[in-house]
């Protein structure tokens, strides 16, 4: 994996500092020895990366941090205060109950981004001018560097840069670009153990709507 630019480090660290309760930040800074819950991905500064981690793993991390901070408090406070952690644990929402106005996890970010990417393909010219192709090439280059889940971005960039050249963006027109985007998405689906999408259907899914008329 390639190194992130310094600005990227700062931006991700800033986002993390805003997103995670202070107790979790303290427990999982670079000096922490506590094992992280399964699925938590660290940023390059050693702090948990919310946009690289699922809601479920993030919840586990937050809970762990709350328990760690309350067990420290418990040893030095009254029994009334000691009843707090159970209350907190019981009232912690499950992943499916995360309010819509919370920062995105890796899955929500991914769904929103694929919607943007496939819709860009769906509205791409049937035959793209040299300028349009150049613009899209530039967009994909920067997108694959700046995507806020850095592990996703690194893998996506590596896939595009396959030495054979076979994964380079196909930008001559809508059909080629839409198919390429579908293959790119399928690469991630395979990596995550998800079912592959039938790329013959990409236009129905993202441009025309399904033939049965349910999108009309
Ligand atoms: C560039 C990129 C890299 C990513 N890398 C990672 C990663 O490394 N690790 C990680 O955990 N997550 C990653 N994600 C997120 C991941 O791909 C999913 O978005 C996330 O797991 C949510 O998945 P989902 O099952 O809800 O549907 P999504 O995979 O988000 O798909 C949304 C919808 O797109 C349609 N669809 C599915 N496959 C295709 C296809 N091949 N072509 C056209 N349409 C399709 C389906 O209708 C589906 O419901 C990445 C996202 C992006 C944009």
From TrEMBL:
<dbReference type="InterPro" id="IPR036774">
    <property type="entry name" value="ERV/ALR_sulphydryl_oxid_sf"/>
</dbReference>
<dbReference type="InterPro" id="IPR039799">
    <property type="entry name" value="ALR/ERV"/>
</dbReference>
<dbReference type="InterPro" id="IPR017905">
    <property type="entry name" value="ERV/ALR_sulphydryl_oxidase"/>
</dbReference>
<keyword id="KW-0560">Oxidoreductase</keyword>
<keyword id="KW-1015">Disulfide bond</keyword>
<dbReference type="Pfam" id="PF04777">
    <property type="entry name" value="Evr1_Alr"/>
</dbReference>
<feature type="region of interest" description="Disordered">
    <location>
        <begin position="1"/>
        <end position="48"/>
    </location>
</feature>
<keyword id="KW-0274">FAD</keyword>
<feature type="region of interest" description="Disordered">
    <location>
        <begin position="63"/>
        <end position="105"/>
    </location>
</feature>
<protein>
    <recommendedName>
        <fullName>Sulfhydryl oxidase</fullName>
        <ecNumber>1.8.3.2</ecNumber>
    </recommendedName>
</protein>
<dbReference type="GO" id="GO:0016971">
    <property type="term" value="F:flavin-dependent sulfhydryl oxidase activity"/>
</dbReference>
<keyword id="KW-0285">Flavoprotein</keyword>
<keyword id="KW-0496">Mitochondrion</keyword>
<dbReference type="GO" id="GO:0005758">
    <property type="term" value="C:mitochondrial intermembrane space"/>
</dbReference>
<feature type="compositionally biased region" description="Low complexity">
    <location>
        <begin position="63"/>
        <end position="83"/>
    </location>
</feature>
<feature type="domain" description="ERV/ALR sulfhydryl oxidase">
    <location>
        <begin position="102"/>
        <end position="206"/>
    </location>
</feature>
<dbReference type="GO" id="GO:0050660">
    <property type="term" value="F:flavin adenine dinucleotide binding"/>
</dbReference>
């Amino acid at each position: 994996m390639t190194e992130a630019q310094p600005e990227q480090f700062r931006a991700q660290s800033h986002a993390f500092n805003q997103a995670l309760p202070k107790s979790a930040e303290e427990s999982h800074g670079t000096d922490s020895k506590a094992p992280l819950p399964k699925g938590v991905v660290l940023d390059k500064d050693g702090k948990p990366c919310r946009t690289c981690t699922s809601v479920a793993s993030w919840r586990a991390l937050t809970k762990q941090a709350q328990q760690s901070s309350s067990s420290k408090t418990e040893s030095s406070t009254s029994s009334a205060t000691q009843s707090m952690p159970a209350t907190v644990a019981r009232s912690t929402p499950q992943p499916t109950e995360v309010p819509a106005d919370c920062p995105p996890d890796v899955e929500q970010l991914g769904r929103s981004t694929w919607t943007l990417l496939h819709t860009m393909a769906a509205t791409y010219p049937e035959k793209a001018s040299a300028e349009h192709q150049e613009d899209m090439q530039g967009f994909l280059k920067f997108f694959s560097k700046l995507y806020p889940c850095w592990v996703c971005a690194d893998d996506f960039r590596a896939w595009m840069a396959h030495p054979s050249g076979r994964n380079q963006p196909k930008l001559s027109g809508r059909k080629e670009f839409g198919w390429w985007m579908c293959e790119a998405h399928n690469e991630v689906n395979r990596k995550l153990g998800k079912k592959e999408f039938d790329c013959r259907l990409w236009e129905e899914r993202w441009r025309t709507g399904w033939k049965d008329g349910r999108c009309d």
